[in-house]
Write a structure and sequence with these properties.
430 residues, alpha/beta, SH3 type barrels, Immunoglobulin-like, 3 domains
Length: 430
Amino acid sequence: MKKILILLLLPAILPLLCTNALQAQEPDSTNNQRIQWPPHREEGAVTIADTLLYVVTDSAAFLNSSYGEDRLGGVKMNYIDKDIVLKAVGATKELYKIALGESRCAFIPKEMVHPVEQDSANAEIAEDYAALLSGVPAITSSFSARNIGKRDRVSLRLSSRCPFTICQESDPHRITVQLYGLVANTAWLTHFSGLEAVESVDVQQSGWDVVTITVNLKKRSSWGYEAYYSGKNFTLEIKHTPNLSLKGLVIGLDAGHGGKSSGAVSRDGIKEKEMNMDMVYILQEMLQKRGARVVLSRDGDMDLSMQQRKEIFRNNDIDLLVSVHCNAASAGVRGTSTYYKYLPYRDLAEKIITRLLEIEGVKEFGLVGNFNFSLEGTTAYPTVLVETLFMSDPEDMAMLKNPRIRRQMMSKVVKGLEDYLKYCRKIDKQ
């Protein structure tokens, strides 16, 4: 009888037991207060609000894999072409949550899209919008891979433009594209003769609404790629390997900041933008003496957005980019560092910092990967950001003010570039 009574009373007693158990938890050792239940949400904390909105991508739009909104933004997945219709299913203050397909989402900055209604006169966008509303996946048509001169082009025809993610791997050396809201038709894939970058292309239905394109590459060194739409054609262009010496190489040089953006300022009033420009001029001189063609993002003290800088380099079809900066931080932090975004370009950053650390008195701040800086976000060419020394540190700043040290640092950058080209020649023979 007692057992039966306990069982009957259990539903009423259980909540009280759970409450008492929560109240009986040990106090938080950090502030000597009891743990709050439910947890308190800080004001301004990120929340994903439900929404349903169809938007169209603008130029230079990109997808994030997270909703981070720090100084450099969330983790960037890849750039995505303009005029692609997306379904927003949630939102934060700065981002839309995008449904790529039934099994994957991404985030996109609100400033990089606009409501689909603004393109009501655009027949192609209207067609893609209607297809997305129907819930019926787009289908593929013909596939091809051919040499178009300085690039190999992989192209496939779709019934409507779909969002995509893309990544490059080092081992095995390949580029993988996933197209969402798409099913593969039985059309064949044609490989034309003369391909220099592409070994083979494979297309698979990896999910009921996801098509995966795998592009296996011939060489291990990586010199960039771009993905975009031309009408309904999804296109991936992979750059051929250039002449692996400084002579004839087209190198982009970016002097950080400029114009209204001063960058860091030393205790005695020296502006980072001036230091950066001085070192870029030195680097330009050294590279030109070795036969390289140099393209500057800015030539003097001027305002340039990140997008404007990227357009300058893209329009000049550069082979490689070096961005030069000085660092700043709290007291006691010093040293040199190099930064890269994508793993295939790690070796470029590593070769340069190895050379910079040969300079007497230069400390190591580190080799930093997955860096979300805008110029490093492009996949069109290898990039590296060089943070020379800390203007906030007296010892580092004393070295930066020495013209001999600045020339020495730029000479080491040149040596690092030569090391990287030698490394590329070696791995391409393997």
